[in-house]
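User: Good morning. I'm curious how iron/sulfur cluster would be positioned relative to this chain. Could you predict the structure with it bound?
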Amino acid sequence: MVIKEVTTEKHAFIDVNKCVLCGSCQEKCPESAIVYDSENDCFVVLKGRCIGCGICIKCCPYGIPELRDII
Ligand code: SF4
Ligand code: SF4
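Assistant: Good morning! Here's the predicted structure, ligand included:
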C-alpha cells in the first residue's frame, strides 16, 4: 500500500474592505510580514515572509485576518 503524504501551507490574508487600520496585527507579527501599503492605504501580507502562525488572527480585535492555502 502506498501512503501519500499531503501537506498544505497557509498564509494570512487581510480583507482590506473590513480592516480599520489599527496596526495591531502588524505590531505582533513575528516575521514582519504585514506591511502598510501607503499607495492603497491598507495593510498587506507579504506571502514570502508569512509562516502561517495565526498570531495576527488572534490579536485582531475584529478577527479579520484569515489563513488561506498557498496556491
Ligand atoms: S500568520 Fe503569523 S507570520 Fe503570517 S502575517 Fe500573521 S502573524 Fe505574521
Ligand atoms: S488588527 Fe485587524 S483591524 Fe487592525 S490592522 Fe490588522 S487586520 Fe486591520
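The chain is about 15% helix and 25% strand. The two ends are 29 Å apart (CA to CA).
Let me know if you'd like a different ligand tried.
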